[in-house]
Each structure stands twice: as structure tokens, then as C-alpha cells.
Specification:
Layout (H helix, E strand, L loop, with lengths): L1 H10 L20 E3 L1 H8 L3 H6 L10 E3 L2 E5 H10 L2
Antiparallel strand pairs: 1-3, 2-3
């Protein structure tokens, strides 16, 4: 699975059989932020806040793939600006 994600993210191979479908908008070159601590660091809060609060809000940009959380940086920043 890790190999499939690597190939999709870094080599641009989009139509891999069995590949996870990250919902990256077409043409979006935004950086992917992996893990709750990294997401929290980007917006200046703790990983606990991201897990306990941000994930509970409707239409949150934070998603889960397997056991790992991720988000697209531009979606996260737009979401945070809308929910000040």
C-alpha cells in the first residue's frame, strides 16, 4: 500500500489498480500534510485539538487513509479562514 501511495504522490501515476483514492481536486498541486501533529503544527494547535475538535466539525478537510490522517494544505487553510 505504501508503494502505491508513493507512486501516486511522487510519480504522478493516477490509475493504479488497487490504489487508494485520495480526493485531490483536479489540478490541485497543494501540499499534503500527513499526521495529526503535523496538521496541528501548521495551524498552531495540538494534535489532540485536531483529533477531538477539528475532526468533529462537518465538512472538515482532515481525512483518514488507513490509520493515518492527512489533509491538503490549501483546503485546510481555506477551512480555517471560514471558521474563525
Amino acid at each position: 500500500m505504501r508503494d502505491i501511495i508513493f507512486r501516486w504522490l511522487f510519480l504522478g501515476e493516477e490509475n493504479l489498480s488497487g490504489s487508494p483514492q485520495l480526493s485531490r481536486p483536479a489540478g490541485n498541486d497543494s501540499r499534503i500534510i500527513w499526521t495529526l501533529p503535523a496538521i496541528g503544527q501548521r495551524i498552531g494547535v495540538s494534535a489532540d485539538f485536531v483529533r477531538d475538535t477539528l475532526l468533529q466539525i462537518e465538512n472538515t478537510p482532515v481525512r483518514q487513509l488507513g490509520g493515518r490522517y492527512y489533509c491538503f494544505e490549501d483546503e485546510l487553510m481555506m477551512f480555517m479562514r471560514r471558521h474563525r
